[in-house]
């Protein structure tokens, strides 16, 4: 579909197109359509912008990622559909590790997601040169303890040995299991009430494609800060407070809209 750039909902329509295309190509789980719609609803309530509250979470996440010894970016069908290039750029600022981890896991979807990364010539070159690693496809031979879903199958080099995991939009049970393993989990989820949001070390309540460039910018900037300064940023952040602030933001926004 040819969406005119002048359309007031251009970005949102473009993302919808990407999601639908990914479904047609067998990259997206059918339930990924529902997940996307739920995300859009929360984004309406939030005001379709990165709030100052989310920005603080983004900065904290960036500090944690720079301090990490072995960070991994976990991706599912929706994330790849919406943000393939941006995920690769962020991984390059870190140690290059991306792991495909699916709830609706099938060999066919894994293969199609791998092909989707590789069909971009720039990304293919980065994979070939070893600057980017796409894990979790042939090497998912470890099991996250106490997690029965297909998400429990992970790579030793990736999620299993990682100290910090970035999980853009997912369903809740894995986050809890990863935190129990002593890992730090940074999630990106427009729903501040979701189990993932509630269980994470840091929850960025913002739209994925809007916040990833910001996260990358702060990762780059924070590489110039010393460890004490980064640790201070992390220490001053409280995720419970963060989520409470987001709910207050939504309540106040609705009250203001209702009274105008
Ligand atoms: O690809 P798979 O097989 O791993 O399956 C992936 C989905 C997304 C289908 C699966 O993890 C799932 O069912 O997730 P949920 O429980 O629907 O949770 C997805 C969360 O992401 C919801 O809380 C949405 O509000 C949120 N969300 C959706 N789109 C975005 C988003 N958050 C940020 N940015 C978005 N674009």
UniProtKB/TrEMBL annotation:
Record key words, sorted: ATP-binding, Coenzyme A biosynthesis, Ligase, Nucleotide-binding
UniProt subunit comment: Homodimer.
Amino-acid positions noted as binding ATP in the UniProt annotation, renumbered to this chain: 16, 38, 189-191, 195-196
This enzyme's EC code(s): 6.3.2.36
Entry-linked Gene3D superfamilies: Phosphopantoate/pantothenate synthetase
Pathway: Cofactor biosynthesis; coenzyme A biosynthesis
Organism: Methanofervidicoccus abyssi
HAMAP family per UniProt: PPS
Keyword Nucleotide-binding: yes
Record protein name field: 4-phosphopantoate--beta-alanine ligase
Free-text function comment from the UniProt entry: Catalyzes the condensation of (R)-4-phosphopantoate and beta-alanine to 4'-phosphopantothenate in the CoA biosynthesis pathway.
